[in-house]
Amino acid sequence: MAAVVICTKASVSSLDKATRLWLGRLFVFERNSDRVVICTAHQEPTKEMVNPKRKLHVIILLILAAVSTMTFMAPLCGFMFKCGCVWNWAGADSQCNIHHALPPHCPWCAHGKLGYMLPIVGLTVGQFTGGLVTLRLSGKLVLSGVATLLSLLPVAFVLGYLTILLTSYPYFLTAH
């Protein structure tokens, strides 16, 4: 923030009054004079500038969080709920139990777009938050990127557990 210094002249007789009114200000006495210079420092409110490099780092972390979520969403679903979802390039939900006639049906796949978009948004926001906190504390992009990726598992576990609490799906991190 920028500071502005304002100086005004006053008489020495008004110094006592000025001392009470301007407590904490700088007083400069002029030699051989009955005048005093009162200096006051004010901070100007300025709009804090965002470092363009920091802005780029935040965008990189957001992209990393979104890409890793899209990559790991289906296999995490299959791992946590034992539903049959696999990697995107191996068929994603083609073997998911949502395609079976009898329940139980995968809690993320069974609720359509909403059931799949909520975990995607939750995973992306959770990872991004982990990376952003690390970036804020360390200032290092690589460390923040690693934190973004490592945030995936705890965030997925929390979202999966919340899903199990809200649905009646019988499997969570267990074998059939």
Which tags fit this structure?
alpha+beta; 5 helices; 3 strands; 51% helix
Topology of this structure?
Blueprint: E1 3-11, H1 15-21, E2 26-29, E3 35-43, H2 52-81, H3 112-138, H4 141-150, H5 152-166
Helix pairs in contact: 2-3, 2-4, 2-5, 3-4, 3-5
Detailed description of the structure:
The protein is α+β, with helices and mostly antiparallel strands and 176 residues long. It folds into 2 domains: 3-43; 52-166, no CATH class. It is 51% helix and 12% strand. The chain has 5 helices and 3 strands, in the order βαββαααα. The chain has a 3-stranded antiparallel sheet, with no helix packed on it. Strand 2 (26-29) and strand 3 (35-43) form a beta hairpin.
Measured between the Cα atoms of the first and last residue, the distance is 61 Å
Provide mean pLDDT, rounded: 81
Which structural class do the helices and strands define?
alpha+beta
Largest sheet: 3 strands, antiparallel
How many structural domains are formed by the residues?
2
Strand order of the largest sheet: 1-3-2
Low-confidence stretches: 15-24
What is the N-to-C succession of helices and strands? EHEEHHHH
Helical fraction: 40-55%
Q: Roughly what fraction of the amino acids lie in strands?
A: 5-15%
